[in-house]
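Translate sequence into structure tokens.
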Amino acid sequence: MYKILLVQFLLLLSCLNLYAQNKQEFELGPPEVKVKNSLYNSLKLLDCRSDTTNIGFVQTGLFNRKATVVAKKPLAQQFSILLNSLTDSTAKQGELLLQLRQLGFAEVTGSVSEKGYCYFNAQLYSKKAGQYQLTAAIDTVVLVKAMDVTNGLLKAGSATIINFIAANLLQQPHEGNFYTYREVLKMDSVEKRKIKLYNTATYVDGLYSNYKLFMEQTPDKQIVVEGYQIYPDAVKAKDENGKLKKVQAQNIYAIVYKGQPYIASKHEYYPLKKVKDDFLFTGTAKVTASTGDVVAATMLFGGLAGLAVSNAEATFEMKIDHKNGTFIRLREIPDPPKPDYYE
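Result follows.
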């Protein structure tokens, strides 16, 4: 009986240990400098990420187990502590609002090394008389390569965030628009009102080689579809000599056929649908075999082709990032259950 209890206890410890390894804590490191005469002594966080439960995924341990990156302390608290560490008694009484649009870590395992990515997209607003003016913005991807990249990646991400805040503590807000807090909260909608794609009910037929053309609804050229279905071999366009040739789908961004827009990938055209004020599609993206959720990095790579990091495939519902046309993973679509005769 004692041996049975001991085995059960050891199994429980093992399970708890494995669970603990599934979390990787992230904390902003202490800054290396102080900013004298800062215009601001207060920093508040407005977290507008679509998923605030984590900060991406990394791979830990000998077998590269997937670990969810989580904040060691609430991010709002971390940013407040950071500003206190960056400033001193010479700081003025200004207040900053940090709108966090994206913050995510992801790792990809190569043959001899690992690549780590940190995507940071944020805007700083200066508060004045109850309204906000844009002070600075950042939209960047940090790349780290190493045999074991996790620690270096988290440090590099922390340094990027700290440097962005520190570099703008002496920055006056840009001349121009004032926004209410509600407008900042809904800044995606404010920005979309300036994009033709988001303000039309009809879409112009043709081939779009990049997102800029797609958002402006100005196609490169017209297309011809042979047959009754949209698939890569059926879509053709005239080349520079006027000859009709198959479109290399992996080299373009989208097509519109009979008013229906499609996102282009190497093996498929995915129909786009507008839901409220977002464009969504469901598609298959290649991901790391052992870490299907590493597609938190979809936002990093600028398109489906960039997601080809290994042989395993998973299907996701994704949305277009209206600012740059990259694809943001919303949720994984599970495979349908197999019929009984497969048992």
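Note: The chain has two domains: 23-185, 195-338.
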